[in-house]
């Protein structure tokens, strides 16, 4: 796919590669639409400049790019948002996101030409990863599984599920686990980790189809469509007559309020996300009731982000790779082909058009 | 004080002791008033009956009784309240509460005649402690400090402060600590523990006088009167320009909401109480905003009750007794004399009439 272009000018630039890109038109608010992005072609040198002091640059060829739910703008520009290492959208800049890539050239001591890596890259054919951005690159050592898995089950979403469940939730065999937004990439995995540990697992999701898949394909004990429930408290009491030990919260708001009164003694609420709150105008925020349950039930409620847990990545692989090889975990991908398909694919995950983890194939090697 | 009464009837009951009591007229809602209680005199045998199977009864002479803020009724009868081992008020029953006592007779393997104990007892001269209630008795081994301290700094409130600060808050030297309702028995101690660890400590309280005492007598770095603050967020930003590492929450509601946005990365919120919420009709509960901060700041928010930490009591004494003996902790008591003064004293702590930990002296030995 790399096209060498003759460059008759600057003698240090004798060869350049074509570099197709997907760029953002501007900062965005809320969910991205395909019309918020555009395609362009530029060129990039096929090698790094001569090493300078402390230079850790890595030049990569992108193979797979990932569409993830965090790739959106907040509706209300608030200084409260501090959980991101980077913003996906900036005016006339390539979209930034997770991906799988092959190293073409490297000044970084940990990466060599030919290495496969995953981490934070850009929506283009070739990317120059510099400075602290290289901290978010991980070398891929196990390539006997599909490389695209490193955008999902073996990448950031997988690591999020692992850290949230095994580290934050402190789970025990036989416990009662509730997961909201359970059909998301993280929720699906948390539910399966919990089942593998011998927990009783119930998930909530937003459609009849997702509920059926959670039960029949992902092995959840029960699942329900929150849109069909008028009283979340009653719904949780129906599925957890003995109460909830672990609530893996992806939504916040009313569901959190209902979960709080249904927690068991010494329950744990893992706050992974609060979808219901991201676009709420702070002026109209409702507030969460029932926090007195924190005392009555001695509950630990803990927010986390995956960035604090990447030191556990090798341990994570030791747990999850065998599950994948032994077919103990269900993982479904939806692979769109070509960088051009990126904008539609990204818009699609917010409309629920994807049938599995949305990945964009850029190059096979 | 014990008065032996001749009993001419039953030969097994030849001697009885007079037993003055303070009883509740009924269950109560909200803060107790002296008119909710009455005095009465009954009799009690000065020894235990012959041992029966598994009998662990302990007969004690009460020396000091404790008035604590938890000794009240909830206004709205809700099934949510499960944090208590006992209710202080029941119709025509002696008030139940913490106290210091001397063992007169015992079938319990851990207690012998003459032992000094502290724990859950009743508002009367002599109490028969039976069954699981004996689980809440602790033998007093160190009597070189005032015995009354075992109702406060060396008893339940002290243990609550210790567990909440050292165990739940996971404190580190130099951290920024905020304590609401800081002039309460627990708040005062938490603040002093935090100072002894080298933390920066700010407390909120409800009067100018309390604020001055926190700063001048209890060694807090700063304190403020929350009744004079219209904007808790602004107040916290004034005292914690760099943010809060540990919020020891005794009040909940609006102060918790403001603390949440002022927490630092990896902050901890210890939920010890939510005074502002206890009497709120669930129909009119407002809900707490800013919970998104839990994720953005990776905050751990944890409710606890002292009952889960009594196994650490010996460790607690090892920490606190030296502090007391070396004069490193300020502790103020307000001792009322005689069981008759109990109802007024208990009413008084809810009106702020006490000048220190409210104790009732029943007998000196």
Key attributes of the depicted protein:
Rossmann fold; 365 residues; homodimer; Quinone Oxidoreductase, Chain A, domain 1; globular; 6-stranded parallel sheet; alpha/beta; 7-stranded mixed sheet; 8 helices; 27% strand
Structural notes for this entry:
Two copies of one chain form a homodimer. By secondary structure, chain A is of the alpha/beta class. The first copy, chain A, folds into two domains: 4-152 and 331-361, Medium-chain alcohol dehydrogenases, catalytic domain (Quinone Oxidoreductase, Chain A, domain 1, Alpha-Beta Complex), CATH 3.90.180; 156-307, Rossmann fold (3-Layer(aba) Sandwich), CATH 3.40.50. Chain A is built from eight helices and 16 strands. The first copy, chain A, has helices spanning 156-168, 185-196, 208-216, 232-239, 253-262, 293-296, 313-325, 342-351, and strands spanning 4-6, 15-24, 37-44, 58-66, 96-106, 116-122, 126-129, 137-139, 176-179, 200-205, 222-225, 244-249, 263-271, 300-303, 333-337, 357-361. In chain A, the strands form three sheets. In chain A, strands 4, 5, 6, 7, 8, 15 and 16 form a seven-stranded mixed sheet that branches. Chain A has a six-stranded parallel sheet with strand order 11-10-9-12-13-14, sandwiched between helices. In chain A, 48% of the residues are buried. Mean pLDDT of chain A is 92; it is low at 79-83. At the A-B interface, α5, β13, α6 and β14 of A face α5, α6 and β14 of B.
List the helices and strands and how they pair.
Two copies of one chain form a homodimer.
Chain A: E1 4-6, E2 15-24, E3 37-44, E4 58-66, E5 96-106, E6 116-122, E7 126-129, E8 137-139, H1 156-168, E9 176-179, H2 185-196, E10 200-205, H3 208-216, E11 222-225, H4 232-239, E12 244-249, H5 253-262, E13 263-271, H6 293-296, E14 300-303, H7 313-325, E15 333-337, H8 342-351, E16 357-361
GO molecular function (chains A, B): 2-alkenal reductase [NAD(P)H] activity
Domain Alcohol dehydrogenase-like C-terminal (chains A, B): 185-319
Protein name (chains A, B): 2-alkenal reductase (NADP(+)-dependent)-like
């Amino acid at each position: 796919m790399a096209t060498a272009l003759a460059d008759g000018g600057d003698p240090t630039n004798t060869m350049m590669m074509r570099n197709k890109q997907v760029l953002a038109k501007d900062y965005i608010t809320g969910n991205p639409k395909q019309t918020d992005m555009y395609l362009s072609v530029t060129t990039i040198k096929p090698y790094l400049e001569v090493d300078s002091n402390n230079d850790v640059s890595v030049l990569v060829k992108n193979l797979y790019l990932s569409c993830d739910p965090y790739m959106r703008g907040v509706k209300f520009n608030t200084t409260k948002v501090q959980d991101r290492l980077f913003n996906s959208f900036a005016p006339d800049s390539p979209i930034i996101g997770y991906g799988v890539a092959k190293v073409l050239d490297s000044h970084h001591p940990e990466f060599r030409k030919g290495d496969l890596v995953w981490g934070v890259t850009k929506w283009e054919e070739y990317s120059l990863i510099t400075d602290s951005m290289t901290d978010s690159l991980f070398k891929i050592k196990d390539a006997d599984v599909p490389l695209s898995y490193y955008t999902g089950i073996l990448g950031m979403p997988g690591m999020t599920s692992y850290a949230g469940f095994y580290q934050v939730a402190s789970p025990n065999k036989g416990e009662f686990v509730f997961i909201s937004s359970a059909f998301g990439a993280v929720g699906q995995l948390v539910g399966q980790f919990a089942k593998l540990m011998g927990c009783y697992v119930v998930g909530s999701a937003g459609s009849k189809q997702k509920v059926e898949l959670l039960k029949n394909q992902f092995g959840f004990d029960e699942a329900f469509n929150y849109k069909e429930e008028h009283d979340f408290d009653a719904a949780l009491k129906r599925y957890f007559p003995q109460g909830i030990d672990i609530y893996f919260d992806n939504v916040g708001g009313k569901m959190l309020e209902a979960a709080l009164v249904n927690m068991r003694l010494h329950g744990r609420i893992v706050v992974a996300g609060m979808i219901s709150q991201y676009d709420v105008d702070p002026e109209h925020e409702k507030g969460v009731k029932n926090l007195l349950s924190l005392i009555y039930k001695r509950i630990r409620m803990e927010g986390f982000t995956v960035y604090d847990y990447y030191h556990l990545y090798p341990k994570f692989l030791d747990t999850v790779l065998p599950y994948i090889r032994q077919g103990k975990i269900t993982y479904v991908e939806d692979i769109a082909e070509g960088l051009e398909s990126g904008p539609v694919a990204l818009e699609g995950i917010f409309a629920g058009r994807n049938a599995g983890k949305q990945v964009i194939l850029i190059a096979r090697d």
